[in-house]
Q: What sequence folds into this?
């Protein structure tokens, strides 16, 4: 049974609209709070980035020093060759056996191929490489390469995201100052005029 | 006047909210696209100081066998190579080797420290990404509602019909069925039990709350 008149429907619509309005206002308030949090996180990120850059510089200085010492040491005529070579000949089979055991137990696949590759590798290697800790230096350099790559990837995706967030937060809705023509962008150092969204940005 | 947000100037609801949904989505995508890729994982530096990262060692062995050299500690003769003292033959070479070992230890320590910072930085990124998720959750429905709006309407919620009938459940009771539209959405039917009468000031609040919940549920699906 239809219960209400048109006037009552209208009154009900008004009451319901007021509720929706309040919910929209609450959502907007929540968004403003999240925006503040994003800005705070970004400030912390900037501070951390400075520390990270300093640490990177220190690490690279130490790496360069290591590389320099390695180069100088390699330039020396090899000494103690006989002693080293004798030890190396005894070291190789043990190293091969230990490595193959480890590989079969932990890494599982393709032990045969690795065995041949390893033998060739050990025959080409020099005990001098061990003596100067060449393996540790190689690990450090590989790590340095990976760390640079990870930072590049992070920075790249963050820059893209902040570009969009800058646009978003520059909107007059977020700045709360309808008459402003310029406002501060939380993520970049520049002050830009407001953006007018192109048609293509609209969902519909 | 039930239209809010007049303080934002002449923009209407549609102009104001419509672009946000897509922009938040774009920002999320930009953050997430690499977030879970292997390239985003900080390298495990434990193994450079002889730690037990088996996966990294396996990878190195497969790649060029250098991973095997990490096992030198388990072979006495290999260890002895490191202890060979050549100072009698060439003292300056020995001193240089000492310098190399010192700078190597320092570089390893600083690499570890850098990696810890890199991980903190990565956490900061993940925090930002989760804040964007929250922003989306908080705002998505408003933006989607705005997207449904064809033109200016005085009402955010419009009641089309209110009917009363007996429910078809196991214990039949009288219920009020209210059909509403949020902006230009499809009609949403809300069922209110008889106990909440239309005279109750909470009646329309309950209807609107349920309508909004229903709308958000549908949008999430």
A:
């Amino acid at each position: 049974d239809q219960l209400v008149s048109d006037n009552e429907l209208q009154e009900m619509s008004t009451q319901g609209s007021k509720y929706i309005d309040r919910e929209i206002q609450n959502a907007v308030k929540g968004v403003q709070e999240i925006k503040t949090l994003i800005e705070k996180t970004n400030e912390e990120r900037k501070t951390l980035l400075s520390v990270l850059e300093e640490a990177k510089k220190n690490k690279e200085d130490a790496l360069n020093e290591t590389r320099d010492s390695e180069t100088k040491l390699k330039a020396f005529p090899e000494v103690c060759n006989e002693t080293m070579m004798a030890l190396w000949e005894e070291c190789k089979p043990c190293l091969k056996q230990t490595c193959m055991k480890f590989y079969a137990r932990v890494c599982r696949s393709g032990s045969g191929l690795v065995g041949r590759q390893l033998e060739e590798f050990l025959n080409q290697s020099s005990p001098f490489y061990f003596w100067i800790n060449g393996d540790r230096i190689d690990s450090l350099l590989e790590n340095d390469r990976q760390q640079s790559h990870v930072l590049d990837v992070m920075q790249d995706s963050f820059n893209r995201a902040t570009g969009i967030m800058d646009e978003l937060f520059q909107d007059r809705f977020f700045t709360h100052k309808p008459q402003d023509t310029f406002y501060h962008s939380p993520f970049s150092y520049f002050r830009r005029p407001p953006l007018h969204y192109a048609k293509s940005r609209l969902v519909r | 006047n039930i239209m809010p947000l007049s303080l934002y100037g002449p923009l209407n609801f549609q102009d104001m909210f419509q672009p946000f949904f897509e922009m938040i989505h774009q920002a999320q995508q930009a953050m997430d696209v690499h977030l879970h890729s292997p390239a985003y994982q900080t390298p495990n530096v434990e193994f450079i100081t002889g730690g037990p990262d088996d996966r990294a060692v396996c990878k190195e062995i497969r790649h060029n066998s250098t991973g095997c050299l990490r096992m030198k500690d388990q072979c006495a003769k290999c260890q002895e190579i490191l202890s060979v003292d050549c100072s009698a033959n060439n003292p300056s070479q020995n001193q240089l080797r000492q310098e190399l070992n010192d700078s190597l230890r320092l570089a390893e320590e600083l690499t570890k420290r850098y990696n810890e910072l890199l991980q903190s930085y990565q956490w900061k990124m993940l925090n930002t990404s989760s804040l964007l998720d929250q922003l989306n959750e908080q705002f998505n429905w408003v933006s989607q509602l705005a997207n449904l709006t064809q033109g200016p309407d005085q009402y955010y919620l419009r009641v089309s019909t209110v009917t009363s009938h007996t429910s078809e459940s196991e214990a039949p009771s009288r219920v009020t069925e209210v059909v509403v539209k949020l902006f230009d959405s499809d009609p949403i039917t809300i069922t209110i039990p008889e106990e909440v009468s239309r005279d109750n000031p909470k009646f329309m609040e309950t209807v609107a709350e349920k309508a909004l919940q229903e709308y958000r549920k549908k949008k999430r699906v």
About this structure: The first strand of chain A starts at residue 183 and ends at 184.
